[in-house]
Amino acid sequence: MGPLESVRVLELASVLAGPLAGTALAERGAHVTKVERPPHGDVTRSWKTKHEDAENTSSAYYEGANGEKEVVWQDLATAAGQAWLEQALASHDVLIENFKRSDLSKFNLEPEDLAARHPHLVRVRLVGFDDAPERLAYDVVVQAETGFMGMNGFEDRPPVRMPVALMDVLASHQIRMAALEGLLARAGGKHSYFAEVSLEGSGITALVNQATNQLVNGHTPVRNGGQHPNIAPYGDVLACADGHVVLAVGNDRQFEGLCRVLNIPELATDERFASNQQRVIHRDALVVDLNRAASDWHKAALEKALREVGTPAGVVRALDEVFEESDHPWTVQNPSGARRTRAVAYRVQYLG
Questions:
Q1: Would you place residue 221 in the very low, low, confident or very high pLDDT band (cuts 50, 70, 90)?
Q2: Is 168 annotated as catalytic?
Q3: Fewer CB within 10 Å, N side or C side of the chain?
Q4: Of residues 42, 139, 168, 289, which has the active-site annotation?
């Protein structure tokens, strides 16, 4: 049980953003009813890697987005499905959906009509693009058109997509926030709450410092791997004897600690590296010197030594290392038996 145990959520959404938002609300106690169209259901049930059993009814991808929900199989295009849906809308508090706008009338889900019939309902819908809501918007397309792919990778190679569907993940946070905002508004006497979340808007608003670098300074980011445009060495990777360590040096004191640990204290007083801006300007030369000094270190030993002097760094881990513990605390087991990462990344205590 959780703080949302009295909340009923109707999920008419597929793929990732909507289902992940529903899973997050379920983890906080909400009863989530996920509607899937027979016979195949959510398309992600079939999104299997070459290593998965073709006979399984759901993929690892599907399991990753869908937690403890009540799955109802209904064809909403039929008269029986329409009757079921109308009853469900009356008995649920929140509706999450990602239908195309042109399909809303087919399911009697036009915003004004639905608000008139069910003013209690908090409705959150997902679209791909704000100005072209009918356009198909898979995550990689939105990554491309919001600038993420244009910044990701290396300048002498083609742009690279993020290794997770980041636009969907970002949008799922917007969806759950809108749902909770709508419930608060309803508790305050306001009704017929309707929010529209777009993958495009979720991506654009997550550009943060990269956006202001462009808007304030006219600086268009280039593809430079993981390097931070404002800080150095930050995002720079050191090749150790047995793997890699990434640096996150945010100030001069941390840089001095890095130089001491690597036994190159003279770099901290070198005028090329004496301030953050100078380190950004002379980054290429700096990274060469740092890698030379780190080459004989073992990655765990270097991270430990840097931690002891207060210089942020991390060992670059593969996922089998991340999930080495079978019951990792940020994973949970689905009713199907599959393990997935949690959708909610905070812990709660009631201290009063």
A1: confident
A2: yes
A3: C
A4: 168
